[in-house]
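ping. complex inputs:
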Amino acid sequence: MRAVLLAGLLALAGHTVRAAEPAIVAAEGAAAAGDYRAAVQHYEQALQSRGFSAPLLFNLGNAYLRLGQPARAILQYERALLLAPDSAVIESNLAAARQRAGVAAPALSSWQAAARHFSFDTYLWVGLVALWVLCAALVLVCLGRAARRCARPLIVAAAVMLCVSADAAALCWSDQYRAVVQEPTATRLAPAAAAAANGAVRAGELVWIQDQYRGFDFVRAADGHSGWLQAGSVTVIRAAHP
Amino acid sequence: MQVGPRLLRRSALLALGLYLAGAALPAPAASRFTATIDPPDFNVNESAELTITATGDEDAVPLIPRVPGLVINPEGQSSSIVQQPNGTVRAIFSRTYRVTATHEGNFTIPPIQVGSATTVALSVHVSAPGSPTPGPAAPQAQERRSTPADLAAAVRAAMPVMKVLLPRPHLYVGELVPIQIKAYFHEGVSTQLDGPLAAVGDAFTVSGLDKRPTQTQEEVDGHLYTVLTWNSVLGALKSGEYPLGLELPVTLNIQLPGTDADMAARLRALFGTNARGAFLDDSDFGNLFGRVVQKSVTVKPEATPIDVLPLPSAGRPADFTGAVGQFQLRSELTPSSGTVGDPLTYKLTVTGKGNLARVSAAALQDSAQWRAYHAEAKVTADDETGLQGLKTFSQPVVPLEAGQLSLPGASFSYFDPEAARYVTRTTAPIRVAVAPGAGGASLAATLQGGGAAPAAAATADALAADEVVTAEHRASLEPLYRRPWFAAAALTPVLLMLATVSLIRRHRLRSADPALMLHAARLAAVRINLESMAAALNRGDAPAFFSAARHALQEKLADLWQVPAASVDARLIAAKLPGPPGAQLRAIFAMAEKATYAGMDPGSSALQEWQRRVQAQLDQLEGGA
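pong. complex structure:
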C-alpha cells in the first residue's frame, strides 16, 4: 500500500515538474546548440503530440524569433499568454518580437486593459463558481429562517461575482477572434483574389477575424482598417487544435 | 384704324409690358387675382366659362355675387406650380364656374371679392336663341396657329448657353486646375432645373459639381441673363485633345407665337370687353400672348477640345510618384529629444496646390540607430475645392542608441505645370539628443538577429531564456464555453436548484393542506386506539377494550367517508354499508354498546377474538379505500 502511494506521488511529481519526452528533450538540446530550425521542428512535434502548454509555446516562440520569424514567434507568445496571462517573460519576449516585426501592440482602453488582468477562461471559471454558489444560496432561502440569514450574503456575493465576471468576459470577448498575420499581404475589398486591394497588413500584425466566406477572412486591424484576406494569411490565436 | 382704338392699344401694350416685367422679377409675396369669362357673348341656349385665377403664394375662395338673369355654378378647380431658374416657386390656383342666362340682355358681373382683393367687373351679352354670336373665328380675330418652325425657332432663342472658363488653354496629365462653369438663362424664360450638373467622359474629372451654384444677373450684347456659376476643379486623366463633357438637364417654358382662348379671355378681362379684336389685330401684341409649351433640353458647353499634355519623361526624378502642382516640404520631430526605446513622432508635411492625393514622400527606413514604423498620411484641405492644402505623414520612430543621433533628411519630387519642369524638395537632417533608457544604452542588441544560427546564438541572451516544459498541457485553446462539459457544469446547478426548490415547495404545500392534516390525525387516532385496545385486553377491561375498538373504527370510517368521527354509528354504517359488508362492523358497535352500558364481559379469550375481528375490519377498510 505504501509503495503504491509513493509511486503515485512520484508520478504526480514527474507530471507537474518536467515532461521528459523525447521530442522536448531533442528540442531543448537543439536550442541549446543554436540549431533553432531543428528546435522548431521538435517543439512543433511535441505540440502535436501533447497539446498546448505555456512553456512549450514560449520556447517555440523563442526558437522562431531566433530563427528570424517574428510573426510566428508573436503567434506562439500570444498563445502562451492565454495559458499564463501574468507571465512577464512572455510579455517581454512578445514585445521584442513585435519590435522586430515592426508592429506595435494594439492600444487598449483602461477598461480593456483592466479586464485583461485575468484570462477570459478565468472569468468563465469565476462565473461558473458564482453560479453554483448562487444556486445553492437560493436553495438555502427555501429551507428556513436561519438558512435564509446565511443565504442572503451569499446571494449578494455570488451575484456581484457573476456580474463582474460577465462584464469582464464581455470586454475580452473579441479576444477569441484575434489572429496574427503570418505573411505581409494586401487586404481586398471583396472575398476574391481578383478584387481590388484596399490596404495592407504586416507580418506579425494583430487582426480580428469578423467574418469568413469561401476561403477568405474579413479582418479588422488595430488601426481600424478592414478588408478580406485569404484564409491562410492569418492564424487564429485560440486554435482548437495544435 | 381710328384714333380711339390706337390709343387704347398703346395703353394696353404699356400695361402688358409692365405686367410681363413684373412676372420676370422675383416672385412677390402677395398673390394676384384675375377673372375672365369666355365667351363674353352667347345666347340663352348656350353657356360661358368664368375663370378666377390666383397667381402667387396665396389662395382664397371667391365670393360670387348674385346677378339677376345669370346663373353662376361652380364647376371645378385646379392648381399648378412653376419653378423658375433662380429657384423661386410660384403657384397658380384656378377656379371655374359655368355661367348661363335666363333671358337675353346685357349683364355686368360686379367685381368679385377673393380674400382681401377684388377682380375687375365683367360684361356679358346674352342674345336671343338662334341669333348669331360672334365666335372666336371672326375674321378680325383670326388666331394664328404655331408651326413646328415657330417652335424650333422659339427653342433656339430660349436655349441656355454654357461656358467653361479655364485658367490655361492646356493642362498636364494629373494636373488639377480651378475652373468656372457658367450657365446663361435668358431672362424672362421660365426654366426649371431637372437634375444636377454632371460630368461625362473619361478624359477628365470634375469635382465640386454637387455644390449649390451661385446665381447672378449679367447683360451680354444688350440681353439680360440669369447666370448660374459652379466653381469646380478639373483634373486631366489622359493626354490628348478631348472636349470637356458636361450636361445640365432643364425644362424650358417657351412662349410660342399665336393666341388661345384663355389668353384672349385674359386680355378682355384686363382691358375691357370689346378690346379683343383691336388687340389681336396687332401681330406683335398677339405674339406676346402666345401659347406656352414645355421643352426638356440638356445644356452642354461648346465642344471645344482641351489640350492635355503628357508629363515629360526627360528629367523625371526616380522618386517621382505623380504629384503635379506647386508644393513645399518640411519635417519635424516631436518631441525634439528622447530616451532609448521611447517612440518619437517624425512628421513630414507637404503643403501647396495640386493633386495632394498623389503626393507621397519616402518614409524613414530602419537603421542601426532607429527603428521606423509604418507612416500614416492625412490630407487637410484649405479650401472648398480641395485643391489647396497640406498632406502630413506621421511616422513613429524609436531611438535604439543613446547620444546625439541624426534622422536623415527627406525628399519629395513633383512636376510644376507652371514652370513645366520637375522639382525636388528636400529637408535637412534632424539632430536629436537621446538619453539612455532603463534597459541600458542600447536596444539594438535586442532587435538584432536573423536566420543564421551564429547570429541567433549571439543574441540569445537578449531574450528571456527558455523555460522548463512541464507535463501540464491543454488539448485546445478554445474558450471554455465552447466545450460541452462546461455547458453541463453551468446547467447542472440551475437544474439541481430548480428540482430542490420544487421538492421543498411541494412538501410545504402538503404540510399545509387541512385535508391531509386531518387524514394524518385520524390515522394517528386509529393507531392510538389500537394500542388502547391491546392495553385493555391485557388488563381484561372489556368496556375499555370495546370503547377503543369503536373509536378506532369510527376514526377509520370517518376518514373514509369524510364525516365527523362522532357521527359514525350503527345507523350510518347500515346506511352506507347495507347487508353483509357492514354486518361485522355493526356487530362490533353493538358489542361495544353492550359492554359499555350493560357491563357485558365476554371473557379474555373472546376479547382476543374481537381484537382479531376489529383488526380484520380495519385492514378490510384500508384495502377498500
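Residues 2-101 of chain A form a domain with the Serine Threonine Protein Phosphatase 5, Tetratricopeptide repeat fold (CATH 1.25.40.10).
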